Automatic annotation (TrEMBL):
Signal peptide: none annotated. PROSITE patterns: THIOREDOXIN_2. Residues 24-201 form the Thioredoxin domain. One of its GO terms (molecular function) is antioxidant activity. It holds the Pfam family AhpC-TSA. This is Unannotated protein. Residues 187-197, 206-228 have a biased composition (Acidic residues). InterPro entries: AhpC/TSA (IPR000866), Thioredoxin-like_sf (IPR036249), Thioredoxin_domain (IPR013766). SUPFAM superfamilies: Thioredoxin-like. Residues 185-230 are annotated as: Disordered.
Amino acid sequence: MSTHESTPPSGAPVPEVEAADIEHLTGMAIPALTLESTGGPLDLQFWTSSRSVIFFFPRPEHGGHTPSLAWQQIPNSVGSLPQAKTFSDRLQELIYLGARVCGVSSAPLADLEAFVKRHGILYPIISDPEFKLRDALKLPTFEFAGDPDAFVPEPEPERDPTAPAVIITEIGPDGRPIQIIGPTTTADDELEEESTDEPGSIAETDTLEIDIEETPVEDETGDDETATEELAPPEPVEYYHRLTFVAGAGKVEKVFFPSYPMRDAHEIAQWLQIPREITPFVADDPWV
């Protein structure tokens, strides 16, 4: 399993899945698993008794906005929506060539059902949140902490704790003095005092340098501690790496890797046109 942080260091290399990580798949038997899908419980051994295209993707994309930069740094993590729609658009062609299609994601079934309904996907998508197929087929996954769609702003520079703050006294619209906390100053950048010619009048702008100190607060146990609030980092979530293979007669026949969202359906269609033994559909197959 490869792991990616939600905020990787700038320029840090992101590990990719190597061909050696998936070369064991060709010829592997499809496990005897029945998993929930958007079309109801799906028996994988029955599904792959005839030729089937199975593609794995990390999560259903919402569309209409760009995922976070941290998520985009993960190789081949973006493109679930165009991939799913391309397979849907070419589904009849693939069925004509002897293969049906299903997708697999670790996303909750409710999210996948909404995804299928929103985008008109014409084939079932399996929900595998327990990664049963990962364990059975030794499939690659990765971890990501945080919301893949969240905007992560650049961190602000830390304030020098030794630099004083400035309180600026100004004359408000009603003629009364008001105080505003101004920008931090340094020894080389001090504000100059301005005063009026009339003795005893309030200066338009008076400056006063003060040091801001953290106020200790007493917790429920009676111990003094600094009043600071830190948010716990988000827990990492596991996702499937993008991967596509063709299975038939209950075994993996051909692995397409790397998996390209817009090219897989075309390349699989070309591969299916090569003369080879084709396992026919089962007569009572409800998906055809």
